[in-house]
Amino acid sequence: MDAAQFGEYLHLIGFKPTRCDLTALKTLLTRHMAALPFQTLSTVLGEPVPIDSGSIFRKLVAQRRGGYCYELNLLLLDALTLLGFEARPLTGSVIPNNQLEEAGARTHMLLQVTLQGQPWLVDAGFGGLAPTAPLLLESEKTQLTPHGQYRLKPHRDGLVLCAVTGATQQLLYTFDRQPQRRIDLQVGNWFVSTHPHSPFRTRLMAARAVPDGSRHTLLNTRYTLHRPDGSRRVRTITDAASLLDVLRSCFTVSLPQTDGLSRRLQQFLDTHSGGDAGTQSVRGEGQVQEPHV
């Protein structure tokens, strides 16, 4: 980002630079995640996902379309660097179905931010269960965020990030602190966005965490509002107009309402239809994880 783009980014998220301390980092992450949603619309539509700084700024800030881990965290990395924070990228392997032994390739990107010699995990790009506050990397204690509790557990030469709900732990991803080059990120992004077996090609996902402690999530035709008290409001989306409205009003994703886009989204919804239509209010503990990779 150049100076003008950086100013536009700060205006969009509503952040005024202060000191490079933990309070500022928490505020920056909260504002970044509220203004810039996670979404996989681009990959579902078969669009390319370049991750150079210019392309990321254009899509996320200028066009207000949101993105996934490589885009969201690389934009955040640019902002952190310009603000004077010590930050660098890391990569990890997503854990499917809570089965640690089934963790796949390094297709998830996160950040390490160091403050006064202490390393913190910062991740704006893990969809419906991304931690909305920095997590101290060198602690095995449960850590509280505005949207739930998390723990970091040792695993081989690295760590496992877990979401904690009561006595239940959801294993999210495993990672280590090995330095990552830009080409490493490009390879992971290429796999996620183009490989025919990548879930990002076939699952329409979106997530947005708002400062009041609630989260909006979307998985194919199912939109869910997760409230801070643990209750959920679930709605089944059956038509493209409703999907575009939800993306705009709940996820702040701006898309042109063209006939071509509407037809493609309707085809996707028809292919993935199922379950009861309408709106439901249900009780449940914590957040429901939408599939990531």
UniProtKB/TrEMBL annotation:
Protein name: Putative N-hydroxyarylamine O-acetyltransferase
Disordered: annotated span: 271-293
Alphabetical UniProt keywords: Transferase
GO MF annotation list: acetyltransferase activity
Protein family (similarity comment): Belongs to the arylamine N-acetyltransferase family.
Species the sequence originates in: Rothia aeria F0184
